[in-house]
Amino acid sequence: MSRDDWEHALARAIVERAFRARLLADPVDTLAEYGLPEHDVSAIDGILSASLPEFAACLLRLSTGVWMLDRGG
After folding, report:
1. Is residue 28 pLDDT above 70, yes or no?
2. Residue-level pLDDT at 62
3. Long-range CB contact pairs, 54-57, < 8 A, 24+
4. Domain range list for the chain
5. Cα 12–chain centre separation
6. Residue 69 in contact with residue 34, Cβ under 8 Å?
7. Contact between residue 52 and residue 10 where contact means Cβ atoms under 8 Å apart
8. How far apart are CA 62 and CA 47, in angstroms?
9. DSSP at 35
10. What is the pTM of this model?
11. Closest CA to 62 of 4, 5, 6, 21
12. Which H or E run contains 13?
């Protein structure tokens, strides 16, 4: 998923309670509608979060290097 896709999914989770609950309960299945690539599945499947801020922090730790590469950094 691109950084824009991640940002959209997280923003949606902020405003849509049902989406947020699904995301925290089963992030792989929930993010499938965003075209979650197979190489992201194992990383995302390992995130166990009780809250959206916790999920976002885990996601940021996992993805920072990839996003920096996308930006040429």
Report:
1. yes
2. 77
3. 55/13, 55/23, 55/24, 55/27, 56/10
4. 3-70
5. 11
6. no
7. yes
8. 10
9. T
10. 0.79
11. 6
12. helix 3-15
